[in-house]
């Protein structure tokens, strides 16, 4: 990329392409950041430098910019970008506007390196478009963000977390439907101020072995909390909260910025967000083009007059406008709702991840193109608003394997008061959120060779006989639990046995082998983890009750003692490594 373009050549005027060196001993490209001595480090068969360029003065971080006009400065570059396709001479025409930057000195230009040999260069990608591409990125490509720093826009949302965290990481990824940006006038709602059209909360586990991406339906009715927003003059304006409104209005409406969506998602899920990444329609168009297309699957012929997508049943490679049409289609697939569109987006993102992870992207030129497309489409929070911070952030998260990335949709129900919207399905959503908060993966583990034990047949409520004691729960918990069991579950054989002789840190259910069916029923009602079940070695007597001791972890009857370790029933989900997903 020309140093006069959006990316900077760096403090030492080194062209980004010149930092990649082919190592004949390994068959891979290596990134050389030792500018002063890089000539000695390169193989002897390297070609001499090409033409010299006037470099733009190396600057610091990108400016903080208000929303939703974050792409305005990119439009100013659009004309120059179009001229760039005609060769370097066209780009030199912009030099007169940057004469003051010439003092930075020349930057060498070299031809794009040949493709690497058949050996696969290690690339680590954890999740999809823009945010997914950048969050875990590949180790080498992230160093190029030192040159791509000028592409990144950032917004001060009033929270600045460290780029790297020692615990789990939650990244909010937002796709806005604003019509701003080159080529976007035909998309979204004509009067949209840039709502949260697509929202994904990506949770990366503490040990960096798995990731869960929760898609939040845009038409879900929710509460939006009050939020502070930074104004152009540096002042702070507090936007009042609203109750019972569409989730997508958490961005753009009433001047809300991504910090308002951030706070809305935190309130909804109980998860603390570390960072956000946001992009508009160009992200899908540019990234899909940069990777030479993304494979998608249609389970039937698709002809959507709204999105202008026409596909025959089968597999197709889509990019640019067609890729955007695919992720925006909903009227001719599934139920025709936004929930069906979410499933298409998950299919597209999964396929994009697989392609980025493939050996086809071991060439430095291709990685550079993808990095350019991603960063030009990106707006982030100030915590990761510089190249160095993005580098640290991505390096920390690059370990997740693709088969440990799971997409899921926040479960919802039809809204009886408004058929055009949906409401949260708390029965399914609460355990899902608890599962993610507990850092449990939704990815299914590999099946072992041994036989699984047959599931225990649950006993009917009238057969569940249990004595309940309080060994650490809130005062009155034993009686409260018995009342709940008898009145809500019809377990008439439950009894309050008072206080336990000793305090317990965790809740415990003791039972005999012949009470396994009763124990299974009670554990399901109470949300007991397997660790709470203590089976004795001998059968219980004829009318002998099980013993349930409420520990310090007990909160209230009906509230799960522990987060589930299996994906709750009713939660739509798909693994990013599943190549057999097709739109129907």
Describe the model.
By secondary structure, the chain is of the alpha/beta class. Helix content is about 25%, strand content about 20%. The longest helix is centred in the middle third of the chain and has 20 residues.
Helix content: 10-25%
The mean pLDDT is 77
Tell me about the biggest sheet?
Answer: 8 strands, mixed
Strand neighbour order, sheet with most strands: 5-18-13-6-7-8-19-27
What is the gyration radius calculated from CA atoms?
A: 28 Å
Low-confidence stretches: 1-18, 33-143, 446-450
Q: Report the end-to-end length measured between terminal Cα atoms.
A: 41 Å
Quickly count the helices.
14
Shape: elongated
Beta-strand segment tally: 27
Name some characteristics of this structure:
584 residues; alpha/beta; single chain; 27 strands; eight-stranded mixed beta sheet; disordered N terminus
TL;DR of this structure?
With 584 residues, this protein is α/β, with parallel strands linked by helices. It is built from 14 helices and 27 strands.
Task: Please specify the SSE layout and strand pairing.
Elements: E1 20-23, E2 28-31, H1 38-41, E3 52-54, H2 72-84, H3 88-92, E4 106-108, H4 131-136, H5 139-143, E5 153-155, E6 169-176, E7 196-204, E8 211-215, E9 220-224, E10 227-230, E11 236-239, E12 242-246, H6 258-269, E13 275-279, H7 282-290, E14 294-298, E15 302-304, E16 309-311, E17 314-318, H8 321-328, H9 338-357, H10 364-376, E18 379-381, H11 387-397, E19 405-409, E20 412-414, E21 422-424, H12 426-437, E22 465-470, H13 477-488, E23 493-499, E24 508-511, H14 516-526, E25 533-535, E26 546-550, E27 573-575
Parallel strand pairs: 5-18, 6-13, 8-19, 9-21, 22-23, 22-26, 24-25
Antiparallel strand pairs: 1-2, 3-4, 6-7, 7-8, 9-12, 10-11, 13-18, 14-17, 15-16, 19-27, 20-21, 24-26
Pfam families: LytR_C, LytR_cpsA_psr
Keywords: Membrane, Transmembrane, Transmembrane helix
Protein name: LCP family protein
